[in-house]
Design goal:
Blueprint (H helix, E strand, L loop, with lengths): L7 H4 L19 H28 L5 H34 L3
Helix pairs in contact: 2-3
């Protein structure tokens, strides 16, 4: 009993067209992408909280309790973002003070 070898291209004709990405070729998201995503997330929480405050002022929308929770989340996320910014500025200034 003999078994004929089967090539991958016979099973998947499009397999030859697929790019072969080695783990070293796949780029991880950079620091700028991470920072931009974080800023966008904080902005989203601030916009959502502002929208809910407007809805409560008009008498529609979620309960005041939920709005206060979202406002506190937005405040805390903004404070965290401000602290990250401060640390980044301190690190930048420290690097600029280094003598080459």
């Amino acid at each position: 009993m003999s078994v004929d070898p089967v090539s991958l291209s016979a099973i998947l004709p499009a397999a030859e067209k697929l790019p072969s990405l080695a783990p070293a070729q796949q780029a991880a998201p950079g620091f700028a992408t991470w920072l931009t995503d974080g800023i966008n997330a904080v902005n989203g929480t601030l916009v959502k909280a502002d929208s809910e405050v407007r809805q409560v002022a008009l008498g529609t929308g979620p309960s005041l309790h939920d709005v206060m929770i979202h406002l506190e989340e937005a405040r805390l996320s903004f404070q965290l973002l401000a602290q990250v910014r401060n640390r980044l500025l301190d690190a930048y200034q420290e690097v600029m003070r280094m003598q080459v």
